[in-house]
Amino acid sequence: MNSREPEGASCGLPHELPEKILLAHGGGGRLMQQLIRGAFSENFHNSYLSTEHDSAVLPAPSGRLAFTTDTYVVKPIFFPGGDIGRLSVFGTVNDLAMSGARPLYLSTGMILEEGFPLESLQRIARSMREAADLCGVQIVTGDTKVVEHGKGDGIFINTAGVGVIEHSLNIQPSSLAEGDAVLLTGDLGRHGIAIMAAREGLEFETTIESDCAPLAAMVLDLLDACVELHCLRDLTRGGLASALNEIAAKASRAIVIEEMQIPVRTEVRGACEMLGLDPLYVANEGRMVAILPAKEASRALEILRRHESGKEAVLIGKVEAKPASRVVLRNAIGVTRYLDLLSGEQMPRIC
Amino acid sequence: MNSREPEGASCGLPHELPEKILLAHGGGGRLMQQLIRGAFSENFHNSYLSTEHDSAVLPAPSGRLAFTTDTYVVKPIFFPGGDIGRLSVFGTVNDLAMSGARPLYLSTGMILEEGFPLESLQRIARSMREAADLCGVQIVTGDTKVVEHGKGDGIFINTAGVGVIEHSLNIQPSSLAEGDAVLLTGDLGRHGIAIMAAREGLEFETTIESDCAPLAAMVLDLLDACVELHCLRDLTRGGLASALNEIAAKASRAIVIEEMQIPVRTEVRGACEMLGLDPLYVANEGRMVAILPAKEASRALEILRRHESGKEAVLIGKVEAKPASRVVLRNAIGVTRYLDLLSGEQMPRIC
């Protein structure tokens, strides 16, 4: 037996989990098994997940695969409208949906800081389970590491996702065509402002809640209705402006949008002014743009508006040939300016 | 334009990357694109990877899927015989191989601490590329986050992996049968001791190098030869003893192993004595046990020994009915004792 092992290791440990995460919870031993049972097993259970297997074995999918990953380091971990767990499920599900995939499976890799409250971990695990149930995905495999106090920041969560593509469209920037319509599924900036307000202790008349929501059901409904989608993009870090810039650059087309058409709530606009932020660059976690042939636009808007997070879906602009690779914003009186890619970080650790 | 944006953001930035990671590198803007180009693009390039897409789109696989994830927080990040990048590829490839899958695709999610040297990031990315090439897997999707100085520890890497299962075996603990042979692919303890020595500044007569290696080729050769594999397990955190305990418990069988058959190098044994560690509990990163019908053992050993990391493969024990769920170690003079699961962590941040 090992001299570093705490007393009592081989003669049974107390069944109660300690209130805070210990370094030993990451060691692959008995304490780790207790942590998995105490924090994860009640929330993450399905026929594929086996916490004591090296990988999940899943049925052969019936189409091309979509595969994506995202790491969540949001601060604070609990915020109005969501938490890091909910975000880590919706965010990765949304990335899968943006290639037109049906999201199926998630993995979760957690880095816990020594001393992190067990109660918070359990709350996050519950939140992940509820979010996964809402999206119809299963968390099938996971891993937990613990780092020393001061070498992490409470909890970081990576989720990777696998989905199946059941259609033959290539939903990507290179599919853009001149004259395509650019649709936006709702108002901008709530996630970023909710996080900033929570972090800075700002108080507004009404609490601004994150827009954090899953987008896959909307996308699958568009596909079921055979809407010819050219490109989809969720508007996370860098907001609408960054997403459109990336698409325009990859497609070598111009995207021209109308400022007046872009919904931004009054309280978000006010907070942005106070914080010196432009809502077009602020992060969202439940918004996307859909780019598709103009003749499909009204049918697509009708489908999007059937969904809670697409109720305010709107046509905001179109694809043009020139100026290639640029995004142009036209204001109420017809004056245009380029919307550029920001240099760096306007809001660190927003997701 | 945003008031927090640094000067010069929209009129072109210097093309040189700074020597250290900035918080702004994680912001989804222009600096992030420069980081991706400067650190990742030259190493991670294949037909599926698009750094500006939300998910990778991959061909439909021809069998069941294996899906796994692991997060790497090893300290130090460079150690004799490997580094965190190499480990993050081999470790996840090995987890896929343990279900008998052919590893195909990896995702990578990095958490960088502000101030992390760019040169180290580039070195790690090169190492990941070389490791992926060696295993025949492709890194098809990735994500990078940056946290403030003091909220991380240089670099943490998550890799998730997808593989395809091209056979109909169920390689898992419940497939164990009484009389099965337990094979071990080589000597124990080198990874853990290499890390501990590097961390503690210990010097031995010869440098002990990590055994860090990919196991998939060995497994695929066994499968190609139609060896009837019952269970595979790589021996990472918690070493041989923990892996066998987990298997015995899930299978409700006994595993009886012979101490004399277990290869441990003299210098590893010496270091373990000095550090008060038991090599049977020390982490490995290129070792596995294979459990299979006794009649298959000699054929399987012959196949394993054709591989560099299986040259010392050996029969170490067998599966018995009782004592159910326990691991029994028999020493040179026939005295037996239970090998228990350790309580917690004998070596934090070993992988």
Oligomer: homodimer
Largest interface: A-B, 103 and 103 residues
What is the CA-based Rg of chain A, rounded?
A: 22 Å
Annotation, overall tally of beta strands of chain A: 14
From the spread of the alpha carbons, the general shape of chain A counts as globular
Q: Examine the secondary-structure arrangement and name the CATH architecture of the largest domain in chain A.
A: Alpha-Beta Complex
Q: Which blocks of ≥5 consecutive residues of chain A have pLDDT under 50?
A: 1-14
Quick one: CATH class of the largest domain in chain A? Alpha Beta
What's the number of domains of chain A? 2
Strand order of the largest sheet of chain A: 9-11-8-12-10-13-14
- CATH homologous superfamily grouping of the largest domain in chain A: PurM-like C-terminal domain
Number of helices of chain A: 8
Tell me the helix content of chain A: 25-40%
* Topology of chain A as a string of helices (H) and strands (E): HEEEEHEHEEEHHEHEHEHEEE
- The computed structural class of chain A is alpha+beta
Strand content of chain A: 15-25%
CATH topology assignment of the largest domain in chain A: Phosphoribosyl-aminoimidazole Synthetase, Chain A, domain 2
**CA-CA gap between termini of chain A:** 43 Å
Query: Main sheet of chain A, how many strands, which sense, barrel?
Result: 7 strands, mixed
Provide the residue-averaged pLDDT of chain A: 91
